[in-house]
Design goal:
The chain has 7 helices and no strands. The chain has about 140 residues and is mainly α. α3 crosses α5. The radius of gyration is 16 Å and the shape is globular.
């Protein structure tokens, strides 16, 4: 699944006022000098909270020199997803949201976002510009 149905996002963000507050806060962040403090994991979390396909924020690697020199395992996509899932980074991931996004909400998002393994995936799988994994894993 590449986008989340509204029914699932409604389970994560329980009321419309919280949803609007998160959107408004993010908009303010993007217009402030604090935007330079945001990392890819923050953008990923924001897009996931809205139920959007967060993978679109990452461009597939095509440069053969970079791939030959080991850029694939260090790709920002893998680092951002890993950071999102690390409990040791929870405070850092939630910090820009100023309490609007709770640890419970983050845990719900973590359960939906798969952790792609950079060492099992191959750069060739991304050659067409498509991702070989879904953005979300929704339990049946």
């Amino acid at each position: 699944m590449n986008t989340l149905p509204k029914a699932i996002t409604a389970q994560i963000i329980a009321d419309i006022s919280t949803y609007q507050s998160i959107r408004s806060h993010w908009s303010d962040l993007m217009r402030s000098t604090r935007r330079h403090e945001l990392r890819t994991a923050h953008h990923l979390l924001y897009l996931a909270l809205l139920g959007k396909d967060w993978r679109k924020a990452f461009r597939c690697l095509f440069n053969s020199n970079k791939l030959n020199n080991g850029a694939f395992p260090g790709w920002g996509l893998f680092r951002a997803v890993a950071m999102l899932h690390m409990t040791s980074c929870e405070e850092e991931v939630l910090a820009p949201f100023d309490g609007l996004v709770t640890p419970v909400m983050l845990q719900q998002i973590r359960q939906l976002i798969p952790i792609p393994n950079a060492y099992k995936l191959k750069p060739e799988q991304f050659a067409t510009g498509k991702f070989p994994f879904d953005a979300y894993i929704v339990p049946a």
